[in-house]
Fold each of these.
Amino acid sequence: MNQDPPSTGPIESPAQPIHNEPAMVEGEPLKVTEPTVDEKLAFAQHEIQELKDAWLRAKAEADNLRKRAQIDIANAHKYAMENFADSLLPVKDSLETTLANEGASWETLKSGVELTLRQLNSAFEKSKIVEINPQDEKFDANRHQAMNMVESDRPANTVIQVFQKGYLLHDRVLRPALVAVAKNKSTTS
């Protein structure tokens, strides 16, 4: 009994019945021929072209994703302040309303400014802007800027006066607090 040789790969050929007897065509055994070198070459070239096409499609898709990511990043930078700016609009409106009210009393102006300050604090809170007011805290060079050192009975490196509050955006210092720091009193003999 004659068996077919094992296949070495996917070669397109007419379907062969799978059994131990040779196929018969008009009473004569069907000869199974090995593909010629030209057929193998043509098949390999076809496979190469398919792989090349797939690679080009994947490359184009990667380029499109990269370009889209660049556009998204540019838009994120461009519109990053949108929420903060939106929360500042009521603050501006309140200031304009206060200034437009020419006959307002001192109490009315003060309450309007207090309302505006609450709106501004709310905008800061929404944007994760945190105030640094280090009065009586230990001096931290990462968050405070010492303007001067003053002899004091307080422990050395303690903030004894805040000239200007600082601010953090998340954990990054937007502006350090400007402070005066205590130093030990000098002793003279």
Amino acid sequence: MQKVSEQIRKRIMEDNQFSLDIASMLGILQVSVKHLARRNSTKLTQYVLVQFYKEQGYKESEIFEK
């Protein structure tokens, strides 16, 4: 199973609005999103989130770990 890149995880930890938007899409608390990022959870690769990352300007090659 693929996981999101370090670049995405770092932005989740540092960008309040970015992590808040993800929390809203998943229906969970913002702090929970940050925990998912710390654990490098595959939940951060859900289709709706990948589309969100693309809307934020990330290319497919920047979204997933290599």
